[in-house]
Amino acid sequence: MSGSVVAKRYAKAMFEVAMEKNLLDQVETELTQIVETFSASPELMEWFSHPNTDSAQKKELFSTLFKELNEITQNLLFLLADRHREGYIGEIAAEYKELANEARGVAEAIVTSATPLTEEDKQQLTEVFQQMVGKTIHINNVVDSDILGGVIVQIGDRLYDGSLKTKLVRFQERLKGSRVG
Predict the structure, then answer these.
(1) What DSSP character marks residue 35?
(2) Which structural domains are found in the chain, ordered by start?
(3) Among 2, 47, 87, 153, which has the minimal tally of Cβ within 10 Å of its Cβ?
């Protein structure tokens, strides 16, 4: 079974239980903290992935590292330890966040720009794209000087490319197409 399918199943189950118990935000925060902890310590993830590390050791360390987790998140970690799937925690957290955002009517927008966006730029983009997609928009700005100018906005599977680089490429293609031999 592919990793994304596994992650989606766990995330969906977590989401449903969290919604039922009204713990959507808390579970999301806890999953984020867990992912950040693993990201900060690759050695920790390596230890969890080692074949000689048994489930009981993993659960004990989870209990020590993450003392304040609610029952839902703790049960997920224990289940992942039992099934040797702790490596999926990052994907599970990302899938869970998508489900939670969908339930809240929120969309994540990845906005690529040549220079960092100002707060005013972010506000203007938020207003425009909230009307287009009918959801509250949270902007994550990615700086890429290769686009030269303008912005590229990705919301879910939609891509809005207003970069200067793309406009120049299209202009060049039109020029090539209109040449008379």
Answers:
(1) H
(2) 3-102 (1.10.520.20), 105-178 (3.40.30)
(3) 2
